[in-house]
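Tokens for GntR family transcriptional regulator. Go.
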Amino acid sequence: MLPLITGAVEDRSARGIAAAVSRLITAGRLPAGERLPTVRAVAGELGVSPTTVSEAWRNLTLAGAIETRGRSGTFVSGLAKPRFSRLSRPPVTLATDLSTGVPDPGLLPDLSGALRRIGDGRWAGSYLEEPVLPELEAVLRERWPFPPERLTVVDGAMDALDRIASAVLRYGDHVLVENPAFPPLLDLLQTLGATVIGVPLDEHGLDPEVLRQVLGERRPVALFLQPRAQNPTGVSMTAGRAAALAGLLRDAPGLLVVEDDHAGDIATAPPVSLGTHLPGRTVHVASFSKSHGPDLRLAAIGGPAAVVEQVIDRRLLGPGWSSRLLQGVLLDLLTDARTIARVAEARGIYAERRAALLAALGGHGVTATAADGINLWMSVPDQQNAMVTLAAHGIAAAPGAPFCVTPLGSDHLRLTAGLVSGGQTDLATALAAAAFQTGRGSGPRGRGHPHGWR
């Protein structure tokens, strides 16, 4: 085993050792359950410091490739269950499914008019044409929170994050994210072998003091954040906080900021971006799934040409471009007065639903936040028991643990408040039962701020 590992190492840095072991695991030459040699044995054979091997083992552990079992040693992990799979819909259909995180279909704009207007074949073009319709690019640039050097369109926000991360990250890179964060993003970063570091939020966005500390201790290459209606907490970054964060990031010149504006036009907060202060180091992703329809499968990427052009060039080896037919639909929707009014109406309805559910929960002493977007983040003493209690009431919720990079001050559930069109009083009663009658006694008692705020 030791010769197999050391023989595969070409780069004797911590990152190089981790990459070599990762390749052996992926190739099946280090199968799940295999016990690894000790840190000292590997260090001695390679002629490096045990600290270097320890860092490599730590990166592999954070990536889920290996696991430590106390005195028994360190072993190759089995395939880790993705966080996103733990958010899948319950096996039994419940009357009220608030686990999904999707927009209310009844609040999406009608696409039939747009399809009729643009379905005449005029969008068909050469394989070698630009990936974005010129008319759509012009509209997107007008809406962008800062002037992007380059802009393209891809198949949704997660497709955008996947392509950006694959272009700029290397195995073992340190990457900053919000804590809590969107589980598919955490799955993606783990798949790429990144070392993920969570930065807590307060009501204005990322905590600047924690960010300052992390920047001083590590050398992260990227920061992924959601500037508005953060999923799951609903927090939106303020202009003042954006300026403060940008001031700190100026001292980390190699770090790229990746913003996922997933809520788009249904967010009530203004479009604040770090790109206003750091345009050459900020890639902004604008999604239209929640505002105009998930099945449009469209999101725009705008920012430094060096990054966006990598995405464009790599796509030429795959899908090439996103459907120009659907781009035409989006262009029509973004410029149609009736659709603009419909989206504005949906934005107001979502705000009313969040406020009504929060007020009803507050009457029961339940700690929750839903400042923007369609989600509500509720603190509970015990996540599993809370979900069982809700299931008994015919309600499905998403567990909070998959959202957390590191544990918060209490357990949580995420609920799609945007789907609650009525009956907030009865729902709040059931949610209160889940929050306070979970096998640890009853009555309203908090265990910390819903974000883990200090």
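DSSP finds 16 helices and 16 strands in the chain.
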